[in-house]
Design goal:
The protein has three helices and two strands, in the order H-H-E-E-H. It is mostly helical. The chain has one domain. A two-stranded antiparallel ribbon has the order 1-2. Strand 1 and strand 2 form a beta hairpin. It starts with a helix and ends in a 15-residue tail after the last helix.
Length: 94
């Protein structure tokens, strides 16, 4: 009985590996995109030139440079339906 279980397990592993290899050969992969390809893509901006609809934005900088202010400003503008550029704080703390 154990030999039959081992044989079945082995057969299933081989079959699974074969399917994985066949599918990986059929998958063309991601084509490389150039900057020119991306420039031609149509994008809807929430904040022109900065944040696209359905996009992801990362705000990173050293501490006390206005990341939270910028984030809150962007969120308030989106909530109010204003699509202009994000404003800047009058001065930066150093």
């Amino acid at each position: 009985m154990e030999e039959q279980i081992e044989a079945t397990t082995f057969t299933l592993r081989v079959k699974s590996e074969a399917e994985r290899r066949i599918l990986s050969e059929l998958f063309p992969g991601a084509d490389e995109l150039s900057w020119d390809d991306l420039e031609g893509a149509r994008r809807d901006f929430i904040i022109p030139g900065l944040l696209t609809t359905g996009g992801i934005c990362v705000i990173c900088a050293r501490s006390n440079l206005g990341k939270t202010f910028t984030y809150v400003d962007m969120v308030c503008r989106m909530a109010c339906g204003r699509r202009g550029s994000a404003s800047r704080p009058d001065r930066l703390r150093r």
